[in-house]
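Quick one: structure tokens for this chain, please?
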Amino acid sequence: MDELLSTFPVLTLVRFGLVGCIGVIVDFGVTFLCKEKLQQNKYMASCAGFCLAATGNYFLNRAWTFGSTDPDILLQYGKFLIIASIGVGLSGLIVWLLSEKLRVNFYHAKGLSIVMIMFWNFALNSLYTFGG
């Protein structure tokens, strides 16, 4: 067990989680600003929030979480966005399955989905995007 813990990148996971929390704040903040203050369509506002949060998360994760120096930023950013987009879809599916099919409270389903997708995003970004 000690050997497993020594090879698991705990600090990297914690940093990834903190960046994710910042992303949630950006996502909700931009969505609120666009929808409530700029009177934009709620779906467009949500899309803008996701896009800005994902972009900020990419740069924070690149520099702080993974310390990447890969010069091909556009390819790396594209990989990150693909993983994030798939994660959004999986999150919706998990929430739907848990809340509609298994009758789990919606907010409990949402919370479980967030944790599951964080590990999905971390694993794939570690292996695929940032070559960890």
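The helical segments are 2-7, 10-37, 42-65, 73-101, 106-129.
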